[in-house]
Design goal:
Layout: H1 5-18, H2 33-42, H3 53-71, H4 75-88, E1 94-96, E2 104-106, H5 114-131, E3 138-140, E4 149-151, H6 164-182
Antiparallel strand pairs: 1-2, 3-4
Helix pairs in contact: 1-5, 3-4, 3-5, 4-5
Length: about 190
């Protein structure tokens, strides 16, 4: 599957955004404007001005909507969610060649809030996957205690874990040790 640089950056940003959602009290990854600024910097999101607590609430709402796209049972459901998300962002496609990158399209309106910026650019990146018949690439880690989001860009769509080095390796080692225990051999 061929994905251009800008779409890949938007997919990375939406995955990063989804993975900031906390699973319980006190583990919210974007609790304030300072954390939101770090997220923007880490993901190289351009054209973002000052951020405040209103932006935090708006980005949390957009994140929740992206989570519903990842959980959509089929392409029609994902398309409906994405259409609403992108339309609500006031999408304004425009060509740009900033920061040394060749010509590409930004979908957010100049001066848009960060929430609308993410809804438009990341929403369109996800829409490209749905249009290409690749919605099943939007996944959650299958490790029992994880559930982090990722986009499976493997050639054969076989990726099961957010990271083969952490979740995948941890589960493979646990399975190996269980087999060794069953065989009556010391697992370590």
């Amino acid at each position: 599957m061929l994905i251009n640089h800008d779409t890949r950056c938007a997919l990375d940003a939406v995955v990063g955004l989804l993975n900031t959602a906390g699973t319980g009290a006190g583990d919210e990854g974007l609790p304030d404007a300072a954390a939101l600024r770090r997220f923007v910097t880490a993901h190289g999101i351009s054209g973002v001005g000052a951020l405040g607590e209103g932006d935090v609430a708006e980005v949390h709402a957009v994140r929740d909507r992206f989570a519903r796209v990842f959980a959509a049972p089929d392409a029609r459901s994902a398309a409906r969610l994405l259409n609403d998300l992108v339309a609500g962002a006031g999408t304004t496609p425009r060509l740009t060649d900033h920061d040394g990158y060749d010509w590409h399209i930004h979908y957010f309106a100049p001066g848009a809030s960060l929430g609308r910026h993410l809804a438009a650019d990341c929403g369109m990146a996800l829409a490209f996957l749905v249009v290409a018949g690749e919605q099943e690439r939007l996944r959650r880690c299958e490790a029992p205690d994880c559930g982090r989001a990722f986009v499976d860009l493997s050639r054969n769509r076989s990726r099961r874990y957010c990271s083969s080095r952490t979740c995948g390796n941890r589960l493979h080692v646990a399975a190996y040790r269980a087999r060794r225990r069953e065989a009556g051999v010391n697992a370590d």
